Amino acid sequence: MKILLISDIHANLDALNAVLDAESSKCRGVICLGDITGYGPDPEECVRIIRNLSSIFEMCVVLGGNHDAVLSGKLPLEWFNGHAQSSVAFTNRALSPESLEWLASLPSTASVSPGVFASHGSPLEPLTGYLWGTAETSSALSWLADRDLYLCFCGHTHEAAVFSETAQKRIRYPVPGEVIRVAGGATPAVDRAASVSPGVPLIINPGSTGFPRSYNGARTADMSGDTLPISESSFPAYYSVWDTMENTVTFRDARYDRRSVEDRIDAKM
């Protein structure tokens, strides 16, 4: 089964639609790692789409993130900086009572399948814990190993990343087109897949769909070695695809014109 991995949509309707247009007909499952709302101009529209994913995909897991949790008081507003607090106020006004109630019901973690876990942030601090590849990440990997969890998907940092305790390439920042082999079997059809030792926990962040914080400066490279320009009219929405039969995760991006999004953000301020 191919499972779409999305995270940190942040009310960016154009980015979300770009990803779903690219992958919804190819994937049978979806995992949304949270932060559906926050920052962007279209919280109600994005919530409605995510709520409807279960009617599109055979398998559907949806988590709530810190920007979703603050709306129901699960996280104090003071945890956020001033800019984010303004976004929370706008989101509260823009969302319907039904959407607010649904967001309040979302968990911040989920057991996806035997050995596979999902969390918005660190599994040790699902709503607030960032994983940057240092001591906090080692603690999270140890937590996974103690529970016989070999794979964990998380978001929160807005940056695509792969973390493991293996000696080779303990931290990876994959580019679109890169394939990571997860524990569970060989994948001879994937020439460039980076192998991971069976039984060694792996944490994978698919990157941010709505508001990526890192895209290799002004250009992004794909696995062919080509560089693709990033501009207002060609902006990346990052996501990944987990192939449970091939035991791989492929990092991808969908391009969209961000100018209308920025216009709507300006209009809401």
Give the SSE layout.
Blueprint: E1 2-6, H1 13-23, E2 29-32, H2 43-51, E3 59-62, H3 66-69, H4 82-94, H5 97-104, E4 109-113, E5 116-119, H6 135-146, E6 151-154, E7 161-164, E8 171-172, E9 179-181, E10 202-205, E11 219-221, E12 227-229, E13 235-243, E14 248-256, H7 259-268
Parallel strand pairs: 1-2, 2-3, 5-6, 6-10
Antiparallel strand pairs: 1-13, 4-5, 7-8, 7-10, 9-14, 11-12, 13-14
How much helical structure, as a percent, in the residues?
10-25%
Tally the structural domains. Answer: 1
- The CATH superfamily bears the name Metallo-dependent phosphatases
Strand content: 15-25%
What is the typical, i.e. mean, pLDDT? 88
State the secondary-structure class.
alpha/beta
Largest sheet: 6 strands, mixed
Instruction: Give the termini separation.
Output: 42 Å
Give the name of the CATH architecture: 4-Layer Sandwich
Order of helices and strands: EHEHEHHHEEHEEEEEEEEEH
CATH fold category name: Purple Acid Phosphatase, chain A, domain 2
Uncertain regions spanning at least 5 consecutive residues: 185-196, 215-225
Rounded Rg: 18 Å
Oligomer status: single chain
Kindly provide the name of the CATH class. Answer: Alpha Beta
Report strand order across the widest sheet: 3-2-1-13-14-9
